[in-house]
User: Fold this.
Amino acid sequence: MIMNILVVLLVGVAAWILAAYGFFSALLHFACVVVAGAIAFAAWEPIVMLFLGSKMPDYAWGLTLVAVFSLSLFILRLIVGKACPAQVHFSTTTNFIGGGVLGAASGVLTIGILLLGIQMLQMPSEMLGYRGWKVDEHGEVNQPSGVSGHLWLPVDDWTAKFYTWASKGSMYAPNNLARWYPDLARSASLYSESINGGESRQGLGPDQVKVQGVYEINGDSLPSNFLDEEAKGINRSMQAPQNRFKLTIVDVLIDNAAADKGDKLRLTKAQVYLVCRTDSSEETYEPIYPSAFIQKYQPDSADEGRFLYDGGDLAASSVGGASSGIPLKFEFVMPQNWRASHIVVRQMRAPIPRTAPTVWTERDLAALKTNEPPPRAGGAGSSKPWMGYLLGLACVVMVMVVTVQEPKRSHQD
Assistant:
């Protein structure tokens, strides 16, 4: 409830103030917001990779997005103010209504970017009564019922969709937002869904995850009841031609430095997803969350076990002190005609090799089955919620100061 009220209040403040500045100023401000958002999403990942990602991986994604947007908006408003120093005369009604509408649109995009950024800071899973997406007790990724999972003004979702669509249209680039981060609002909301409601680390540094191999099992090679009984929590809305599915297993190696205190790595279902091409044109991408994980059960054994992500707080975890890194495998169910593009672990992207995947059979999968529970994902947490809240407050202040900055224009008919 608090988050709902806060979002409505911030959007309302932006709309009211820009309406007071007049239609022309609100129009210029809206144009600056759209361009500043495009700059922020374009520069977002490169800045994280080059500067902040290795120094503060748990906060770099959210802080970079909001900081670049605020700085870009501030500079653009200075440039526009110099280029358009005079006001254009409109009637009082036009100024108020037109300025209010454009002010509300600017507010939605501005607060949307702000909320996306804040959700990608290290903090507890529930923030001011809001938890947009979660992994439920059945292991399915969905939105909680009621106000905790649905904003009255879903500005984060609207903003993510606006820039995702734009990245495929008027702001098109080959390496666009729709390709690298489809369904950005959901992945931002799930960023803090670490074990025990946000206890463990939520970010990775550059090059801390690498793909070692990809294995594929054709659906025809699986038992008839496999998808219903063994692949819990898959996205049932996926449309597969002739209902033909396959399993893709991605083998990753994660750097030991990504672990929590006590050298324990813990990855929930929400912190890993595979981005797939859904058609031959390579223009449509969808994220898929894993149905199971494969890992060693004991540090002194080479045997691996397969464990279902069929509960809300299950986590793949490290079990031993391997100096070369922490090996884990994640299993994904997808339509037969989809192709894996890249895997994202704690917001860090790793490409899938272009070579053909190794073919597995039902026998390979059966060799991994175990009747024992997965290794206990214990260990000391590294979360510092006060730091996330402090940076979140700084982001709000930074964005609102730039937004309410009064344009310096003389009046002219």
